[in-house]
Amino acid sequence: MADLAPVVVVIEDDPQMRRFLRTGLGAQGFQVFEAATGRQGLVEAGVRKPDLVILDLGLPDLDGVDVVKALRAWTRLPILILSARGAEQDKIEALDAGADDYLVKPFGLGELLARLRVALRHAALAPAAQGETFSTGNLRVDLQRRLVYVDDEEIHLTPIQYRLLAVLVKHAGKVLTHRQLLKEVWGPAYVDHAHYLRIYMSQLRQKLEADPARPRYLLTESGVGYRLRA
Amino acid sequence: MASERNNHAPMISDRPDPDVLLAKVEREEAKARRGRLKIFFGAVAGVGKTYAMLEAARERRAEGIDVVVGLVETHGRKETAALLEGLDILPTRSVEYRGATLREFDLDGALKRKPSILLVDELAHANAPGSRHPKRWQDVEELLDAGINVYTTLNVQHLESLNDDVGQIAGVRVWETVPDTVFERADEVELVDLPPDELLGRLKEGKVYLPEQAQHAVENFFRKGNLIALRELALRQTASRVDAEMRHYREGHAIREVWQVGERILVCIGPTPLAERLVRAGKRFAMALRAEWIVAYVETPKLQRLPAAQRDAVLRILRLAEQLGAEAMTLSAAEMSTAILEFARERNVTKIVMGKPTRRGWKRWLLGSVTDTLISEAHDVNVYLLGRPHGAEPGDGKLSLFREAPPPGLNEPSEAGRRIQHRRYVWAVLVTAGCTLTAKFLFGRLDLANLVMVYLLGVVFVAVRYGRGPSILASILSVAALDFLFVTPFYSFTVSDTQYLVTLAGMLAVAMVISQLMGNVRYQARVAAHRERRATVLYAMSRELSAARSEGEIVRIAARHIHAEFGSRNVILFPDATGRLVYPREKRLDQSLPGVDLSVAQWVYDHKERAGQGTHTLAGAQAVYFPVVSESQAIGVLAMRPANLRRIFLPEQQKLLETFLNQIAHALERVRLAEQARAAAVEMEAERLRNSLLSSISHDLRTPLATIVGSASTLVEQNEALNSQDRQNLGRAIFEEAVRMSNLIANILDMAKLEAGAVKLNRQWHVLEELIGTVLNRLERHLKGRMVSVRLPRNLPLIYVDGVMIEQVLANLLENAAKYTPPGSPIEITAEASAFTVTVSVLDRGPGIPSGKEEKVFEKFSSIHPESAQSGVGLGLAICRSIVEAHGGWIRAKNRGTGGAVFTFILPLEQAQPSLELEAAG
């Protein structure tokens, strides 16, 4: 990755936080551009041709969610959100608006790098994933033939279970909110019925996970949604 | 009031009685808060009261006082209307009544405007139905209570106690009356006087307003003789007020009063037309003597059988007496004269006022009369007899005297009672028939005299068992049966042998006497039983109340007892923090009254007076409202909707209800004081907690901060001297301590939010397994090297919780287990469900909890091992408890029998499981 020198735009108003990100990411071979306000950030994102945007939700001039929307108006580049602890609702709104992942402050550099790599990989893979075969660990999903294997053994899923898994596979590594999943699998009328999702997710885990109480693939993002470990 | 000023014992020294002085001081204090009432008093309409009032008002206004006209009837008189010019006039209130629009005085408008002086004409006016008070004088009372000074006008004929006299003088009765107490308590009375000749002149000139339809009657009324008599009454009334004021002055200046020996007058009334006159006469008598007076009604068994309407009429008279300032009593006794005498002795009555005896001639001689008995037996009491007015025959139109209909609902015949009544008579017939069968069997073997005994036995049985009426029936039937069947000639009512006539007559007489005696005995027994029951009821309630520990408990006890005793659904309302009454939020009981008119209740609360159905205030309301008063402060309002109003408003019942209310008020007061004491203790505890919070936090925040500052400064200042290993070590120290601080701050913030009640649960349906999985993932690093086993039954129900919070509970419990158990020891998570709860346990194999500390671990800032290396403010478990309790659940800790500790939290399954459209199982 270092030879590619991925470009990251950091939109964050706290100078100490910017310094930490600049130092930490720079040392890891990222090329970092900084913006202290939302507007400046939108300009930077437009001119620097970034591979990824790191966006703090608490900005002085614009609502973080609006920044996500403005970016999504013209680009699919991965957006990683930084949010304060307990601000679940902001996080969900930003994810619903199209952000890819989030990180709760305070966080360590290791955690940040892991998320960045997943997001970059997901962005690189995304177009190719359609209609292909996806595999992670001992789980394999053949999207074309709609077949699911664990340890090469075919697992029979109901149509909804499969649809749910397929949506997660399509966005593997990315956080999907309850709303997004409900809308895509059950339809817009079901966006407030989170318990459907929880029950089907539990069924999927029974079928796909070795220990459903300690899932390896189908991860819960507490209070936000789900993510398939890629 | 006369009774207030009365002294109970002759005064010996020159010093005024302290009680009298105290009463005077209290009276004056109450007066200072109350508005002052000025009455422009006249003999008849047309003497110029309204005119005088308006003139006075203009003078006040010229003095710069805020004068407002509440309502003035000019009756189209130009001079009067002219006086209104330039005065502030309060808009009237329109009331729709039977299609007509009436203009009424706007009480609420006046209270809101709160002028210094308010003019309200015609004190005796009756308000349109649906107004707050039926009478205008009650409006005025409320204005005075609110501290507004009132000017008003009144004619002598409208005074309650004179109403009767005026009626007799003028031959015209007015129905709109004002209680004498209002007049007596007026701060100032100005007599507006006009000699009769001048008045008649004005009448001729058309200066006196006369309504068209009543022209004739009113002209009759304005005869010179009448006018003279009325004027005399008005003058006398005013003079007696002056006299009273004089006495008042004397009291204030320690001028020795020539007190009469404490007079006490007893007015005895019966269910006769005379009753009302007796009460009014008693009032005047008491006024003249400045004596305390009591109006008593003796209810004998005979009177108890009177129709309900008549008994209610008596009740009304008793209430009238109360309004006139008397103490009203109902005495229950078998014999009137004994009851009166006993009562008179008990209360040291000096004079008895009663009606002339109704029995005349031989009946009086034979049966005696109450009056005669009293006169002959009451040696130290003077008895005054009041004659009947002309034309009123004893017993005629027994109840025409009741002008006002009794409060609606007071008359409700009891269907069930009547059925029981009928059944008793049927039994009387059956018993007589049984006697006849027995007699038939014995006939021929026994003499007729002995057959008579069989029948008498039957009569005695019926009398004892079914009371007076049925036994009289049995007596008559027995005599008839005996005559018909056993006296020659048989099967005929004729009697051949005259001596049998004596037998039959004697038998009838004996049977009747037995019936009468047994009837009285039964009644007495019933009265005694009644009293005993009341005492028992009261005792039962007070015993339960004394054991009650909370307001809710008291309210429940009260509701149950009031329902049982008064047949009323009821509820006690308490004010919220702003003094507005609110309907209680607690679970409704069977006896609870489901909805009440809060505006009526509020009025009752504010004025500490009863209102609602059956009372004189807001009588249109569905329920009756009583203030619950303790230490002269209203603490709540009891609202009750009785099935039968009589069960509340009978005098005995009222007294009982008052006692109930007192008991309830005392119990509430006691609980509140206890609550205050408890609150103070809690406050102290909170103070202690705050202190330990401060010391705890400052210690726990400073320690990591010290490490961070030290390490970071070393890195910055000694960079060159450090090798990469040192730098790594220092950096790691900063990182670890910072994480520790971050966790600590997060915990403190959570606790603060939970404590402040700022946390709103985001409840959704969750799968427990998922919550556990999330936590295990999050704590992966924390739990490294440990066997964490999760044992969950299949088919656990969904739980309706805030997922993030329950995750936090699980996380805190797991962290706690990891912290206090040796590394590598196993941790277990289990769950089970019952029909109503889900129980989750976290079990470890550590040292366990020191015995006796099982509860303590959930308290804030408690640490099982205070000075261990595993530092950290003891907040984790306290947060767990707050969260679980916010979900309506509870959390416990105990030691496992086999070593180690188990932390268990139980969540209620309050809601039905959510619906799900499941696809076919796959």
Structure description:
The complex is a heterodimer of chains A (230) and B (922). Chain A has 230 residues and is of the alpha/beta class. Helix content of chain A is 42%, strand content 22%. Chain A is built from eight helices and twelve strands. In chain A, helix 3 links the parallel strand 3 and strand 4. In chain A, helix 2 packs parallel to helix 3 and helix 6 packs across helix 8. Chain A starts with 6 loop residues before the first strand and ends with a strand. Chain B is α/β, with parallel strands linked by helices and 922 residues long. In chain B, 50% of the residues lie in helices and 15% in strands. In chain B, the strands form six sheets. Chain B has a six-stranded parallel β-sheet with strand order 3-2-6-7-1-8, with helices on both faces. Chains A and B meet through helix 6 and helix 8 of A and helix 26, strand 19, helix 27 and helix 28 of B.
> Unreliable stretches of chain A, pLDDT < 50, 5 or more residues?
none
Q: What kind of oligomer do you see?
A: heterodimer
Pattern of helices and strands of chain A: EHEHEHEHEHEEEEHEHHEE
Give the tally of β-strands of chain A: 12
N- to C-terminal distance of chain B? 92 Å
Gyration radius of chain B (Cα, Å) is 42 Å
Main sheet of chain B?
6 strands, parallel
Q: Reading side by side through the largest sheet of chain B, how are the strands ordered?
A: 3-2-6-7-1-8
Helix content of chain A: 40-55%
Number of helices of chain B: 29
In this structure, how is the largest beta sheet of chain A organized? 5 strands, parallel
Compact description:
Chain A has helices at residues 15-27, 38-47, 64-72, 88-96, 109-129, 159-170, 178-185, 194-208; strands spanning 7-11, 31-35, 52-56, 79-83, 101-104, 133-136, 139-142, 147-150, 153-155, 175-177, 218-221, 225-228.
